[in-house]
Amino acid sequence: MIKREAERFVRALARGFPIVAVTGPRQSGKTTLVKAVFPKKKYITLEDPDEYEFANSDPRRFLERFPDGAILDEIQRCQQLFSYLQSLVDADGRCGLFILTGSQQFGLLAKISQSLAGRVGLLQLLPFSLKELETGKKLINDLDRAILKGFYPPVHVRKISPANWYSSYMMTYIERDVRQVLQVRELGSFQKFVRLCASRTGQILNLSALGAECGITHNTAKAWISVLEASYILVLLHSFHRNFGKRLVKAPKLYFLDPGFAAWLIGLKDSEHLCIHSHRGALFETLVVSELIKTRWNYGLSHNLFYWRDHIGNEVDLIFEDGESVVPIEIKSGKTILDEAFRGLRHFRKISDEKSGAAFLIYGGEEEYHREEFTLLPWQKSRKSIS
Prior knowledge:
This protein is an alpha/beta fold and 387 residues long. Helices cover 43% and strands 17% of the residues.
């Protein structure tokens, strides 16, 4: 089993909260993680029809079966349990009593904020990070192959092709999460919408254009983006708004949280296809952004990532805000870095207060080195830009 970086944070949460909740996309390794960290706790999944029926019909008696707590998987399927958990853990007083997992945010986080505020420590678990794969001796050093394979655990621990797995994953996601939560009737339109979003990973979000191309309204497109965010398919990075005396682009930037899934949705089949494809740069950027988000979330931190672009096209791919310090990060997929690649970083530092300090360029090469006042990091070490 590949050891997860989030283990230490989950253990810390269990020492300080009566309930620990682990949420994230389907198949990101939530159940495997909590079973490894809490091997003595009884495991119950609410996808089991008998357990689901019992929890719904008699939630108090259902929970009385676990005097020393339990792992309750897919807890969002039985939302009435939350109120009973509140009174149970308040009366018991022990920390780390119940471990909850949920594959999507909709019901889980809403109920936590309503019924269990102050009682739950939360971890958002994404698929494997580069560091985890390296530690587990599963890291693919060929960049194009790494992008195409993606980072979901099953494609690294099972003998299955990424294309076959992503196809099945898409159908499972549509049938279980989207149909249940959004009651989307035109599932074909939603699938087309997801593919259009994948083709726009790394781009500024234009809801009107997305809706028009998919044949849906602006409001429907906005609602569907929220569903994709809530189920950890994509993330929106917001514009860095510090006032530099320039008009700034304020619409968010869209990124998929797994480059392999995005590549499959776009229709990329092999490395030869990817290396000459117009989306290669955006997929590389997607890999880097998702890696940096994982690095922060695995330790219970907000990602603190933004982008910056002014109205005349000056841009920095990422801005990492850490307290009072601001770290600009440029992302380039090529192995050869020309002087033009530093234009955005130079401009940002010229007009901001960050005229010294760290500034990074993450690229598709293999060596870490310095050039002028900038640090160039190979993609495998991209996390060093925010650590």
